Amino acid sequence: MAGGEVRGVVALLIVLLCGVLAACGGSTPTAASAGCAPADRDCVEVGIGEPIYLGAFLALDYASGLDVLASVRLGLDYLDGAFDQNAGQLLGHDVALIVEKDECSAISGRIGANRMLIEPGLLAVIGPTCSGSAFGSADRVFAEHNVLVVSPSNTAPGLTNPETHQRTYFRTAFNDAIQSSVVADFIFTRQQITSAVTVSKADDAYSGQLAEMFSRSFNALGGAVEQSFSLGPEDARSGVARTLAKDPPGAIFVSLQTPDCGEVVSAIRATPALAATTIVVAESCQTEDFVKLLGTRANGIYASGPDFSSVEKNLFYRDWYLPAYRQLTGNEPEGVFGPSGFDATALLLDAIRRTAVVHPGGVLTFSRTQLRRAMLDVRGYAGLSGVLSCLPTGDCNEGARIAIYRAPQWPIIKGDKAQPVFSQFKTLAQVGLTN
After folding, report:
1. How far apart are alpha carbons 113 and 107 in whole angstroms?
2. Which domain holds residue 234?
3. What is the domain count for the chain?
4. Are residues 298 and 349 in the same domain?
5. In 3D, which of 411, 412, 409, 207 has the Cα closest to residue 289?
6. DSSP H or E stretch at residue 74
7. How far is Cα 381 from Cα 21, in angstroms, rounded to an integer?
8. What are 35-92's pLDDT values in tens digits?
9. Is 7 exposed, middle or buried (0-12, 13-18, 19+ CB in 10 A)?
10. Is residue 316 domain-resident?
11. Contacts of 348 (CB under 8 A, 6+ apart)
12. Considering the entire predicted model, what is its pTM?
């Protein structure tokens, strides 16, 4: 690609990513003469020479968390319009990233959120990684302090259910109501299997809600979910296989995370009576640890997850984001939420740019309420993960293409050469969720 063509692509990308938002047009930050009132919890002031504080609340023991952290850093790097491994400035101020480790539990969600809030200037948070850390935990703590949260990887439907949604919570990740519906369609319609069981983890928002939504979708199609296993900490992971061996189902849908997923599926694979049973695991199980544990026994197991075919065709992703990611980390992306992490960062930076009040000398003030309203103004944002429009419920991804991969043709094994055996695009409206 010639130099002139490269510049043209970058210019086009900037139009696509930014043109639908006021920040990329005539959205010069507002000038004002007064700062924050001392007792005003809605207002954040950034003094001359002080940084703008953002949080990254991520599971750094998991590929998905590490991918998102790299994407956040790339988003800050790209503030100056180039991936040069030097973070740009926002409105003449550095952006300081407060990184907190997500341990993927409700307890860690509360603890981590409160640790981040020690910094009074914290404007917004990218994360958490895990739905279990967010649901009724970190999302509630941040909402109590009116701090904006945008998660690139939370998929539990309850997080954006109008009855349980926290008003400052948004996500660029897909809603598992879509993933569960696609998996149900694959098993019932494509595989023509009419009986299934689910395996989830007790007291885990992601795992339990995904299994529940799958059961609803599968039953609505005419199938029957005959049994639902909800594993507690003391339950033997081999117990599922022993129980099912007495009366094998047509399919098993496993919505567990590593290492539980690998242990359960390994026991199922080692049970002769279940040798012909179709196994589908959710995207959280598509990990290197799972593949290492099962080896060749993983072959034939299906995994659901985002279909990256459209993302990989994106010129910016292929020619700019991926090379910058490799240069930053020395690795290929291992998780599936890197693009939505880059988008979450871009949306937050844009909201900050659009709502800043500039005072004489360069002091900035922000209204947390206005930041939330800026997110609600997002319509038709052409991001790496898709076209985003943020709803009052917090869902910014109104539709998603979910694929089913058959091992060893998993993206975690074959990368962008992995070919799905089934793929569907569905919207929230198509799975029964309204705006």
Report:
1. 10
2. 177-305+402-431
3. 2
4. no
5. 412
6. helix 63-77
7. 7
8. 666 557 799 999 999 999 999 999 999 888 999 999 999 999 999 999 999 989 999 9
9. exposed
10. no
11. 54, 124, 126, 148, 150
12. 0.89
